[in-house]
Structures are given as structure tokens and as C-alpha cells.
Write a structure and sequence with these properties.
Length: 38
């Protein structure tokens, strides 16, 4: 029971981290390219 809850929490954290990273990349990469091109 506890292991199942822990697994769910870990999975949710992993999803959140991946989401945050993808968002950061989606915002950061175009900005970096813009800075370089400019």
C-alpha cells in the first residue's frame, strides 16, 4: 500500500520534472537562438 503510494508520488514528480524541463527548453531555446542571431 505504502509502496504503491510512494510509486505514484515518484511518478508524479518525474512527470512534473519532465514537464518543467520541456517547458524551460521550449522557452529557453528560441530565446538563445534569438540572442545569437541578433
Amino acid at each position: 500500500m505504502v509502496a504503491k503510494i510512494l510509486g505514484g508520488v515518484v511518478q508524479a514528480l518525474a512527470m512534473g520534472v519532465m514537464l518543467a524541463v520541456s517547458l524551460a527548453l521550449a522557452l529557453f531555446i528560441p530565446f538563445t537562438i534569438y540572442q545569437i542571431v541578433r
